[in-house]
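dumping this here before i forget
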Amino acid sequence: MRAYIESYGCWLNKGETEVMRQLLAREGYTIVESPSEADVIVVNTCAVRGDTERNMLKRIAELYALSRKKGSKLVVAGCLVNVRPALIARIAPTASLLEPDALERITEAVKDRVVIVREYKPHRSMLPIHSGGHTYVIPVQTGCLGSCRFCVGKVARMRLFSYPMDAVVKHVRDAVRRGAKQVFLVGQDLAAYGRDRGTTLSELLRALLEEVDGDYRIRVGMMEPHTVSTIAKPLVQLMKDPRVCNYLHLPLQSGDDRILRLMNRKYTVKEYKSLVAAFRERLDRLNLVTDVIVGYPGEGEKEFLNTVNAVKEIVFDKVHVARYTLRPFTAAYVMEQQVPEPEKKRRSSLMSKVAAEVGLLANRRYVGLTAEALVEGAGTRGYILRLRSNYKPVVVHDPVKIGEIVEVRIVGCSPFHLVGKVIR
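structure:
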């Protein structure tokens, strides 16, 4: 039997997709590269935004039509299953549906029609085994402690669940022994790791550094500012270890306190800036990434410009700019003062320009630097490398091999990456 898997969305979804892939392989399925040659088609969905949902539903319809034509089985998994179960069932009436917490029942779902929706019972015991390559993605937790009014995440993944620390350490140790040079710790809010087990992310990171030997780098995934603030002191101390990337993905969402309150975010702009300063004071060349939403209900020109000014002042290395989109089952869905779509587009365009300006400012500080980098892959403009110290992207045109570690001199930059020359 042959299985084909498509995955969308965040790094957490990618890690969970690997769990499903390995479970199917264990059952004897051969993983193929095209849905047209598969007996089983699995699509792991994302539900974060309205346009994402529309694209997911369109793709599910296409894959269902193909499965009916070929007589293959379709399994729809991931976040959209809990957000739009009835709509998916209408589009693909014979497909199996697996909510995120039921991903380990994939082998049942490919044999018979299984529908597991909004049960929120995290029957999770399996972490992905490193299957080769220079990067190992390990999902260590799911769920969050927040209740943001724009986010459908509580419908998709209601309960906080963390994998046991000893299991995470064991899998990371095994991955490094198998040749992994980058380890991505991923989750919905990584800083919430362990709150359901009486431990913390900083304790997990300490255990990894103490118990896993080797020449590797750990990249810590996205973390909510309020959750990070509770572990900031020990976390920043642990990140001083050269095996941890000086990389921080910390969503700001808005640079205006009134909008943050409307979003039900649990910090102020001042508190966010103070948190960033605490990391920057102790970590050399912090690679700071953020998310910003424009056009949130109630956001006027004043509040928008406050966010623009905050982005300029903080000087992020990278800003993910998103227009607010209505998400079902959220408080923001029924809020008054919805911002018209043309105005959202205007603000998004302006914010993207500002993001490029500050990205260029941040990147110019690297010109002249010589540092170690890992060759991550090939792109349209050359090879994509990542500085080992902080995961900063570097483009080179020199002949290199994917997976090797080289020394590069930074000779230029764009708003989105550095330009390097391999010197060793």
